[in-house]
Amino acid sequence: QVQLVESGGGLVQAGGSLRLSCADSRSTFSINVFGWYRQAPGKQRELVAQIDSGGRKDYADSVKGRFTISRDNAKSTVYLQLNSLKPEDTAVYFCNTPYNLMAWGQGTQVTVSS
């Protein structure tokens, strides 16, 4: 069964950094647009960053300048570098392909303490 597997979350202090990874087992990895989403308690899941097959990147205003999305097609992995973390970034982070949504993985928890 094809799965998206997220990893790299953790507990950090405000101002800290984390690097999230998302592994995708599909053979079509290199042609897919990927997105990182997050869902905070009591809130809807939101798309925070997106990267297309050519490397073009888009970000939500709330993370622009602090988060960086990247991809490694050879490793079939998408990354999200989180810098200058704030308590409001606390959420479960997921990856998926926005234009061909798959079953959601378990995500990875990011907790930012003040």
How would you describe what is shown here?
The structure is a single chain. With 114 residues, the protein is mainly β. The chain is built from no helices and ten strands. The chain has strands at residues 4-7, 10-13, 18-24, 34-39, 46-51, 57-59, 67-72, 77-82, 91-96, 108-113. The chain has a six-stranded mixed β-sheet with strand order 2-10-9-4-5-6, with no helix packed on it. Strands 1-3-8-7 form a four-stranded antiparallel β-sheet, with no helix packed on it. Strand 7 (67-72) and strand 8 form a beta hairpin. It is globular, with a radius of gyration of 13 Å. The relative contact order is 0.33. The model has no long low-confidence stretch (mean pLDDT 95).
Task: Write a concise keyword list for the protein shown above.
114 residues; mainly beta; 6-stranded mixed beta sheet
Low-confidence parts lasting 5 or more residues at pLDDT below 50?
Answer: none
Distance between the termini: 39 Å
Mass-distribution shape = globular
> How does the major sheet shape up?
6 strands, mixed
Run of helices and strands: EEEEEEEEEE
Going across the major beta sheet, what is the strand order?
A: 2-10-9-4-5-6
Instruction: Provide mean pLDDT, rounded.
Output: 95
Strand percentage lies at over 45%
Number of helices: 0
User: What class do helices, strands and sheet pairing give?
Assistant: mainly beta
Helical residues, percent = under 10%
Quick structural overview:
The protein is 0% helix and 47% strand. The protein is built from no helices and 10 strands. A hairpin with a 4-residue loop joins β7 and β8.
